[in-house]
Amino acid sequence: MTKTELINKILELQIFVDKPPMLIDIGASGQIHADWKEIAKYCDCIAFDADSRDFNDNAENTGFRKVYLINAIVSDKEEPKTNFYLTNSPYCSSVLKPIESELSNWAFSKLFGIEKQVDLNNKSLKTVLAEKKITHIDWFKTDSQGIDLRLFKNLPAAMQENVIVAEFEPGFIDAYQNEDKISDLLIYLEKLPFWMSDCEVKGTQRINTKTINKYNLKPEELNLRVSSCWAEFTYINKCEKLELRELLLAIVFSLIKKQYGFALDVCSKLEGKMEEDLRKSI
Hints:
seven-stranded mixed β-sheet, 11 helices
C-alpha cells in the first residue's frame, strides 16, 4: 500500500465522514496551503485574508469538501473596526504598522512600504469560529504578519491543546510594531503538548536603502549573504491525551510532513485499548 493509499483509506473511515478534518489558513494570499492538496477532498477549511489584491475567493476551485473563504480582518480583539496597513506587497500587509526605520536596513524593505492605511471591519478568531459553529481545529496555519501567536492564543484553551499540527511564521527582526516574535512563540508552545517538527529559517540581505540609493545598486544582482529574518515553524501534537479520531489524523498529518517515525509511534498508541474503537469506526 502506498502512502497516498493509506492516507485515503484512513480518511474514508466513517469517523471522518461524521466529523471531517478542519483546517484553518490565516493569511491565505495567493493560494491554499500546498500540504493540503492531497487531502482537501476529505476536509473542511476556513481561509482568511484581508488583502484582496492576491486572494482567491472562488470556493469552487479549492478542492475542499467545504470551504469558507473570508476576505476580512481576523484578530484577537473584539473591536468592530481596526486599522490595516496595505503594503507594496500583499504578503506584507498587516494590522500592525511596519517599522520603517528598522526595515530600511534590509534589501526587501520596499515590500513593506505603506500604500495606504484603511479602516476595516474586524472580528476575533474566536467569534468567527463560533459564528461558523466550528468546534475543533485539526491543522492550524497562520502567516498573519506579526500576530501569529496571539491568534493561536485566541482559540479556547481546549481547542489549542487538541490541534494536531500548528504552523507559524514569526520573525527575528523588528518588522512591525508590537509584533509576536520567535522568542514569544518558543516560550508559549513549550508549555503546550507539542514538539517542533520543522524550523526553516528565511531571510534577505542586510544592506540599507540609503546605501542602495547612494551607489545606485540592485541588491538582487549583488552576491550578498542572506541573513536570518524570519522562520517557518511546524509543531505537531505529542498525542499523549488525544482520542481515536485525532490519533488517526496525527498519523495522516505525520505522513504528509514525512515524519514517518512519529507516525509509527502514534500507530503504537492505537494498539490495545483503541482496537475496539477502531473496529467500530470502519
